[in-house]
Design goal:
Elements (H helix, E strand, L loop, with lengths): L8 E2 L8 E11 L5 E11 L5 E4 L4 E7 L2 E2 L5 E3 L2 E4 L9 E9 L9 E5 L2 E5 L19 E8 L4 E4 L2 E6 L2 E10 L6 E4 L2 E8 L5 E8 L8 H18 L7 E7 L6 E2 L4 E5 L12 H16 L8 E2 L5 H20 L1 H20 L11 E2 L8 H18 L1 H15 L3 E2 L1 H12 L8 H4 L5 E9 L2 E9 L10 E8 L5 E10 L3 E6 L7 E4 L8 E3 L4 H10 L3 H22 L5 H12 L5 H8 L4 H10 L6 H19 L3 H7 L13 H18 L2 H9 L3 H11 L5 H12 L3 H14 L2 H12 L9 H14 L1 H4 L5 H16 L1 H7 L17
Parallel strand pairs: 2-12, 18-19, 19-21, 22-24, 25-31
Antiparallel strand pairs: 1-23, 2-3, 3-9, 4-8, 5-6, 5-9, 7-8, 10-11, 11-16, 12-15, 13-16, 14-15, 17-18, 20-21, 25-26, 26-29, 27-28, 27-30
The structure holds phenylalanine (PHE) and zinc ion.
Zinc ion binds next to helix 3.
Length: about 800
Amino acid sequence: MEITKTDRIFLSDYKPSDYKIDDVFLTFKLHPSKTIVISKMTIVPIKKSNLFLNGIKLKLKDVKINGSSSISLTKVHDEGISFEASDLPDKAFSIEITTEINPQANTSLEGLYLSNGMYCTQCEAEGFRKITYYLDRPDIMAKFKVRVESKHPTKLSNGNQIDEGEGWAVWDDPWPKPSYLFALVAGDLLSFDDYFVTRSGKEVVLKIWVRKEDINKCAFAMDALKRSMLWDEVNYGREYDLSIFQIVAVDDFNMGAMENKGLNIFNSKYVLASPETATDNDYKLIEGIIAHEYFHNWTGNRITCRDWFQLSLKEGLTVFRDQQFSADQRGSGIKRINDVIQLRNRQFEEDNGPLSHPVRPSEYKEINNFYTATIYEKGAELINMLHKLVGPKAYKETLDLYFERHDGEACTIEDWIKVFEDNNEIDLKQFKLWYEQAGTPIVTVQESFKNSQYTLKLKQTLNNKNNEPMLIPISVGLLNKKGEEVLETNLLTLSEREQEFTFNNIKTKPIPSILRDFSAPVIINYKTTDEQNAFLLQYDTNEFNKWEAGQKLARSSIIQTILEGKPIDGLFANSIKKVISNKSLEPGYKAVLLKLPTQDSLTDDLIKLGETPDPLEIHKALIKTEIGCAEILKDDFVKLFKELKTMNNQSSDMADSGKRDLHSALLKLNTYNDGGELAFSRYNQAKSMTDLQSAFISLMTTDFRKEIISKFYDTWKHDKLVIDKWFSLQSINCDPQYALESAIDLSMHQDFNYKNPNRFRSLIGSFCAGNPAGFHVISGKGYKFAADWIIKQDKINPQTAARLCAVFQSWKKYDKTRQNT
Ligand code: PHE
Ligand code: ZN
């Protein structure tokens, strides 16, 4: 959205810098509207050329080169300053630049800004140039020393504090780093403290900085941090490398969090938690994001990116690592299912629309718009495939080599691939296509069975074009009619456009379980019958594919409801009942199996059938299906609720979170039978946000709606993060017929403040992405509502505006009427 540069930037134009910066000493004299920044750097010429330093919206006050005033040699441009080569010394020289900036006027939340009176910074990707003139590119790695002058008691920067006095503090980071990892914070904060002893015996001080009133909401994040530190030692051999690690929670933040060296800055939503204010799902997100940012210390900070085209080098790998961590902490099956739901919702959508781009793009206009599901989530899938292809042992050795070979460097995808090739003596030229070609491959499956020989014929296509075939790992298992596994999971490596895989000594025609654990980010095109899916739902040993089969069965039933008005399909209904009564399945897994397919997946099914999807009809069919499920389970509810008696069991250790998930799912269904009576009483007894929220959601489509909305507000109006939920839960769960009206009303509520990204997303984002039938309303007014807000947001915060544009990716799928407004 922010098109500050009209020119495109090309990977092929990359050139190493003619200058490097060895060290920087920054002094900040903090002031809300007139902050003075003095930057004293040692610059080393590598090649004689003009020097250009990036800088945006800075007031240049003074320049000294080797101590003598040089402002007359400085040319000032819109996006930086420059010096003639002939005016610069031939050897290393010092340059001291003084600038003035206005944090208070900075609404973009990039560079140095104020959040509720607290100074903080955000420099990735190109925010440092809004602070001072610099070679603001990730391959320039320098040692930073920072002096913070402010009347605020808390004054922080990267690394270790080495000195302090009345109104000032000095920080020193011994590790060279790119400017995007710089951070500074000043405010009136308290720290929640702990420590961690590394495996080599070094003690690391851990601090989470928050406002006074939030100090009792830090314990879980701290625990997650310590588990992350241990996990990275055990699984990747990575030890922390400073004697202090700090996290700061801020209310105004564009993204989830930022991995600044030794001083992570977090959106407060992903730090603060107490059972009364955070749900089980919030706990999971906090744990995952704390791990993600911590893991960046090695994959991102110690080994960084040469240029922003390589963004997935750090992000894809770090997402993969945080996924592994969460799977280890909480079980891999459900984690994998939820990750794939996300991937399909966001990344597959992206790859199928106008914003489709490769994991390693070759050009961009605005790097801020490349923090996408493709770079992050598809990037992580590519690491997952490498992990599968070489196996866990070789993967570990390969990563050891990666750290050994590239520690302290700014690297490329080529460096990464080369490490895998060298360690495993393989050629990954074909695999590398995954980084270069956009789009989701389709793998078509045909099977045949003759003389105890079972053959799978796999054919790959990409974007309907004659692309070069990719290397696709496909996990397959085979079951016989009795539900026994006759072939355990086998990894097939599809490398040709069309390839046959034959299995011998198979006595009867088997039922295949294809793409177990979602071994590759592809779409499998294989016609299965409802009977086959019901069979796999019952017998498949692979948690992912078992769920996948259930989803297919559900989709087929719902599609029949949409097209033929049929009620819930008998086979599907039966399977639901079986799942619920199956004693060998975990409650949390049952909750996942019970989740109905997304509106998007049904939309795509209808398009495949040549139908024009109507969002409201899809929604109605989903409700009809829920009613059907409620009817089938009617007699079981009392018993089920008794079994799940976990109410008010508030535990952040998640031991019972699966039970609570199942409880929530059933409570919602139960409202179709009792009009919300039980949910209402649950609401009134709830002691944890998990229970409160699940009752609140259940009541959104009952007569208790209005009452519960105002009750919730009255209880929680003092708590920003909980009021974010209040906005978002209403937007998502409102009956689509009134959803737009309700969203418009909420946008006029006194607590709606579009300048806070969390609040903006909790209303506008939740409505657009979470209430598809409301957003895609036939009048087109949902689009207008969203577009107006995006335009308004773009004026103050282009990054937050741009991220919401993703909601417009799918509108072409629906009929023309709604598009014409
Ligand atoms: N690098 C951050 C992460 O992945 C994300 C981020 C990007 C945050 C840009 C702020 C700005 O953890
Ligand atoms: Zn990241």
